[in-house]
Design brief:
The complex is a heterodimer of chains A (300) and B (265).
Chain A: H1 11-17, H2 24-46, E1 51-54, E2 57-60, E3 64-67, H3 69-77, H4 84-100, H5 104-108, H6 112-125, H7 138-153, H8 163-173, H9 177-192, H10 196-201, H11 203-211, E4 217-220, H12 232-236, H13 243-248, H14 268-272, E5 279-282, H15 289-298
Antiparallel strand pairs in A: 1-2, 2-3, 4-5
Chain B: H1 3-6, H2 10-39, E1 47-48, H3 56-62, H4 68-72, E2 79-80, E3 92-95, H5 108-112, E4 132-135, H6 151-155, E5 163-170, E6 176-183, H7 193-197, E7 205-208, H8 210-213, H9 224-231, E8 250-253, E9 258-261
Classes of the chains: A mainly alpha (300), B alpha+beta (265).
Chain lengths: 300, 265
């Protein structure tokens, strides 16, 4: 079978599985993102303080502290002593992402995700090709750079330019400049670099990638033998390089679970696959025994 | 070593080139970020930090810009800075002339801070040092002109401690008293209520960052009268009394009488 056109990604799945099955994780993800944003907003706008603060640190129902471990790490490197409230909050958040996958932060929570997903969607429809290319490792260098700058300037320097927190804070505390940051990121991803921000440069995502390196919850190409090479999953995946080893690695003895720490667990591949190749699974379900068994049968 | 072994494997070469390019690009970005962040370390003199901030330098390593202090301020005084504010982006501040700190006794903003960027050891609001009030213009301050405005003194939450009125002779009228408002740095919390209340078009009393507002006497300076009090006696050898070579029968009276006849002569 020939690969589908980029703008047609997901159409086959809608035809075969119905609209809901072909979009369910996307819809659930958008609902989650919007609900979390709404929970932050009912406080300032309606006076019900369910979550107070913003993504860098918040207080849930006046008791449960949640703190972004990345910003706390920067603060520590900048020379500030970490106190218990922030530490407890950071431990809770860390444990959460250790279990569910670090990049869940990116795909299920981060407000910039709307922007870069929209840019990628439009890019596919407008057939925009090419643009600046960065190594997807660039983000780790930027992550290292933010920590070094924190140490040298003894301040949490990255926060004065971090689009993630600028936009989230802008929405919740009201700042028009957040709109300009959103537009800048959108244009960057649309015209300058494909999947440029979230997939290549963002150090917040890089931090959470590292955090989720060993997380148990994974997407698995468990029925990879059914793949018909339509390429729809590659088109929609925000980190397309993560799919290939799992999907096409059977002959090399690689298991079906997507083990790459950059996988955001967004589940969009599960949606768009008309052949139901993908499913949420766990890292321990990565046996290649079937493969081995087949080989044994062949061997004698 | 022959030429062949010097040549690098092409894929290794490409890898090295790409890595070098990335590292150089990111370093430049980091340089820019570092320089930009140093600039934001200078806080405009009108922007005051919430209670419990020891120094701007320390604060910028500790404040994670969550805004919980802003949320727990019962008077909506604190604001998180945006790009138009010239204050490090996303950090809390207030402008005294617009809305000063009400000095809540339970200091909710400090309690709300998850990182102790607002120092949790601050338990009495009277110990807060958000800035220091200064009469910046004696030429327009009404009290300096001999009028009884007194507003800054009367609104001060620490009246007669942080601001006192010191009487001086009014030389213009020759018969009145000028009550000069004097700010005492050992009590002033820098809440800014005086600046807000100043009746002038532009306040003559302003709360400034302490490092701008405060002078500092050289460490080697000793004030004689203070040393005398501490020691219980003068530490300086008294001057030898001046001897006048006067005609017989005359003496010099030091208390003001001057040259006079010795009594009984």
């Amino acid at each position: 079978m020939m690969a589908n056109l980029p703008e047609d990604a997901g159409k086959a799945a809608i035809a075969d599985k119905g609209w809901w099955k072909a979009n369910q994780w996307l819809i659930l993800r958008r609902l989650t993102q919007l609900s979390i944003l709404a929970l932050f907003l009912v406080g300032p706008y309606m006076g019900y303080w369910i979550i107070k603060g913003n993504l860098t640190s918040s207080l849930v129902l006046e008791v449960l502290p949640l703190t972004d471990p990345y910003i706390l790490l920067q603060s520590f490197i900048a020379g500030h002593e970490i106190v218990s409230t922030a530490l407890i909050g950071a431990v809770i958040v860390t444990v959460f992402y250790l279990l569910l996958g670090g990049r869940v932060y990116c795909s299920w929570l981060c407000p910039i995700n709307f922007v870069t997903d929209a840019a990628d969607w439009l890019r596919r429809r407008l057939h925009i090709k090419g643009g600046a290319r960065f190594s997807s490792k660039t983000r780790y260098w930027i992550l290292l750079m933010t920590l070094l700058v924190a140490a040298i300037t003894t301040s949490i320097a990255w926060e004065i330019v971090n689009p993630v927190s600028i936009v989230h804070r802008g929405i919740i505390f009201g700042s028009g400049f957040a709109v300009m940051v959103v537009v800048a990121i959108f244009i960057f991803d649309l015209l300058i670099s494909r999947k440029g921000w979230c997939g290549h440069l963002c150090p917040v995502g890089a931090f959470y990638s590292l955090l989720g390196h060993y997380s148990p919850l994974r997407v698995s190409a468990s029925k990879r033998e059914q793949c018909d090479d339509c390429m729809d999953c590659f088109m929609v995946c925000p980190e397309e390089q993560v799919i290939k080893p799992a999907l096409k690695g059977e002959s090399k003895g690689i298991g079906p679970v997507i083990m790459d720490m950059n996988c955001t667990n967004c589940g969009r591949c599960i949606d768009v696959c008309a052949k139901d190749v993908f499913t949420y699974s766990n890292r321990f379900n990565n046996s290649t025994l079937l493969n081995v068994a087949n080989k044994k049968e062949v061997a004698p | 070593m022959n030429a062949q072994s010097k040549q690098m494997n092409p894929s290794r070469r490409r890898f090295m080139q790409e890595t070098a390019r990335t590292v150089c690009g990111v370093s430049l970005l980091g340089l820019g970020l570092g320089v930009y962040s140093r600039q934001t370390h200078s806080l405009p003199a009108t922007a005051l930090r919430p209670p419990g901030v020891k120094s701007e330098e320390e604060f910028l390593s500790a404040c994670i810009r969550c805004g919980l202090c802003v949320r727990d301020c019962p008077y909506d005084i604190l604001k998180l800075s945006t790009f138009s504010d010239e204050v490090a982006l996303g950090t809390p501040f207030f402008i005294a002339r617009k809305i000063p700190c009400e000095m809540c006794e339970d200091i909710p903003c400090v309690k709300a801070c998850p990182t102790s960027a607002l120092d949790h050891n601050l338990t009495s609001i009277d110990d807060a040092r958000m800035g220091l009030a200064v009469i910046v213009d004696q030429e327009t301050c009404l009290n300096y002109q001999g009028l009884r405005c007194d507003v800054c003194h009367r609104v001060c939450p620490l009246i007669n401690k942080a601001i006192t009125l010191e009487p001086r002779h009014n030389q213009r009228s020759g018969k009145h008293t000028i009550f000069i408002p004097v700010v005492h740095s050992d009590s002033c919390t820098g809440c800014g209520v005086c600046e807000r209340a100043c009746v002038l078009e532009e306040a003559a009393i302003k709360v400034l960052p302490i490092n701008l507002a405060k002078g500092e006497i050289g460490k080697h300076y000793r004030l004689g009268w203070e040393e005398k009090e501490k020691a219980g006696k003068s530490l300086v050898t008294p001057d030898e009394e001046h001897k006048y070579n006067l005609p017989e029968g005359l003496k010099y009276e030091h208390a003001g009488e001057g040259l006079m006849k010795e009594p009984g002569k």
